[in-house]
Amino acid sequence: MTTLMSEAPEIREQDLVPQRPWSKRPTSFWLAALLGTAVPLSFAGVLYFTTEIAAPLLLIVVYLPLQLVSAGVAGYVAKGKHGILDSGLIVFAIGSTILSAVILGSMLATIIARGFEALRPSFIFQNSVYISPSTPLDYGGVGHAIVGTFLIVGIATIISVPLGIASAVYVTEIRGRAVPYVRFFVQAMSGVPSVVAGLFVLTVFILTGVMRQSALAGAIAYAILMLPTVARTAEEVLRLVPEDLRTGALALGSTRSRVVFNVVLPAARTGVITAMLLGVARVVGETAPLLLTALKNDQTVVNPFSDPISALPTFIFDNVAQPYPDAVTRAWGAALVLMVIVAVLFTLTRLLSGRNSMNK
Amino acid sequence: MEETVIAMEALDAEIARTEKAPKQIEMSANGVSVWFGKRKVLENVNIDFPKKTVTALIGPSGCGKSTFLRTLNRLHELIPGAALAGEVLYEGDDIYRQDVDPVHIRLAIGMVFQKPNPFPSMTIRGNVLSGLKLSGLKRKDHDELVEQTLISAGLWKEVKDRLNAPAGDLSGGQQQRLVIARALAVNPHVLLMDEPCSALDPASTLKIEETIRELSKDITIIIVTHNMQQAVRVSDYTAFFLAEENQPGFVVEQGLTTEIFGNPRDNRTLDYVNGRFG
Questions:
Q1: How much is the pTM?
Q2: Do B78 and A250 touch (CB under 8 A)?
């Protein structure tokens, strides 16, 4: 009514609020999506309640393929031909993720549920001297096996990490003539069955009388298994260090060794730590080599040269096959402890390597 | 009164720099040819680099300028399959003689690369001092050295309050000046620069050009550049490289920058410096 005001361009109300025009979809899209999900889900639901087919089987054999097909149909309805592949891919990706999460999650849940029963301070801090498989859970623990695992994995790390990094340095920095052979050998080594590593140490070091069955012998077997993982991962991370940095260092009058120690390895530090962690993860649960090289011991052993020693995997192996429920629960408890140790170790190392890292 | 004296001195210096006054030769390439495997990429390059001057190497991409630059401090040999003929003299001696350690050569003949390459695991200060650590040189006055070289590289004012920050925090132009400071910290006699400004904005480029002019009072600089104006602005001498298709590169013409750009003898040079090809 006031003509003076109408001079200014009119501002539409919806222009003042943030919008996402790209996610606006027609009703047919939502309808197709709804039907595409509801049909296979209800079909599988009906089968679940009316037949005796087991739930996991139903999920994998009936529901997921059905969902894939119906997603394709829905995609065709909503977007035409290219919609088939799009929605099919999305459903396949989501479905596979859920499936692996369910499998890993149920394993994790079982370990936590069954292992928690055994967990108490005495279980962590005591050893198993005078404990028989039928002894109640209130007595005895895995303290000795925790010490054993740390001792064996620690020594194995000290042996294998320098060797692994050195071989990676040979491949990526020195680039000598034997590179193809070294790489082939490392690849082949990563396929060695763990029991063979144990047998090797047994025949070469123990039966010849060089050393007794002990933490050291177990650590050597572990180190053989760790080495290929550490070497390969370290090689990959050293390869990621830009060539510019190496030439830059050489142009400053650097020797090769100083390029490696002062430039390449520091630049790849986070990756080198990852290589070490992957090596530890590779062996920490290995049982077979320890059965041959470290045997078992109910006492807490701290001298890596002297006596047989138990570690968490061998403790689990010993207890899980016993006909006593308490022994089996101890095995689950030890599995839980092993898992927690690995998780804590990984988190700590990640935090430490992240905090001091110069490149953000 | 005093101002005029200073101005006169500056003028004299300017004249001395551009005049054909005989200068001491710091480096020279005599009949240098270069191969990668079987492919010959440079043929018979002969260039003298007088002491405390700036020489620009210009020419279209792929004509072997950068390769030639890398033969001057023995970085070329790091590439598998690399080969070389002819001699490169530094202070009268062939740097490719059998008993010469490339480490000493690279220490005396520093290099700045096209892409800034500060060491990511080190701080700004650590980068400046990295040359000492890497080459095993001993110097005590680290703080002074850091300040001096950063001032020479034109970066001191911007970073003096955060010397212990990671080098990766700097902008591209600052990183390039940081690696110049890093190269200067080992006190080289010659500085090779391989398109040092090609990844930088105009303001950073200008700063680096000022730095180059400033540095040339003390050291010999050889710079590869695709920027014609830059060659005119910073260099005393220019060499123009060219390569026909699938043929090795060669030097078409070389001489005073004023001559090459103002009065070239060869038509190809004339065309190139006027932007008609390349």
A1: 0.82
A2: yes
CA max distance for chain B: 65
Check CB contact under 8 Å for B130 and A249. Answer: yes
Facing residue for B182 by CB, picked from A244, A252, A258? A252
Average pLDDT, rounded, for chain A? 90
Q: Which residues of A touch B115 (CB under 8 A)?
A: 244
Count of C-beta atoms within a 10 Å radius of residue A41: 14
Q: Quick one: which of B84, B48, B95, B78 has its CA closest to B251?
A: B48
The CA angle A108-A113-A116, to the nearest 5 degrees, is 110
pLDDT digits (tens, 9 = 90+) for A326-359: 999 999 999 999 999 999 988 888 887 765 544 4
Instruction: Give the chain A residue nearest B164 (alpha carbons).
Output: A358
Res. A24: pLDDT tops 90: no
Q: Could you tell me which chain A residue has the CA closest to the CA of B126?
A: A262
Give the per-residue pLDDT at A358.
Answer: 43
Pairwise CB contact (< 8 Å): A252 & B131:
yes
**Residues B278, B271: Cα–Cα separation, whole Å:** 9
Q: Nearest CB to A267: which of B120, B123, B186?
A: B120
CA dist., res. B278 & res. B260, Å (int): 16
| Coil/strand/helix, residue A196 | helix
Residues of B within 8 A of A249 (CB-CB) are 119, 130, 134
Single out the residue of A130, A296, A154, A164 nearest to residue A235, CA to CA: A164
Which CATH class, in words, describes the domain spanning A143-359? mainly alpha
Beta bridge partner(s), residue B237 = B55, B256
| Residue intervals in chain A for CATH 1.10.3720.10 | 143-359
Q: Enumerate the β-bridge partners of residue B87.
A: B30
Question: Residue B193 has what pLDDT?
Answer: 96
CB pairs under 8 A between A and B: 89
Q: Provide the pLDDT for residue B232.
A: 95
With beta carbons less than 8 A apart as the criterion, state whether B224 and B194 touch: yes
From the candidates B119, B162, B164, which should be mutated to test the interface with A, based on the most A CB atoms within 10 A? B119
pLDDT at residue A194 tops 90: yes
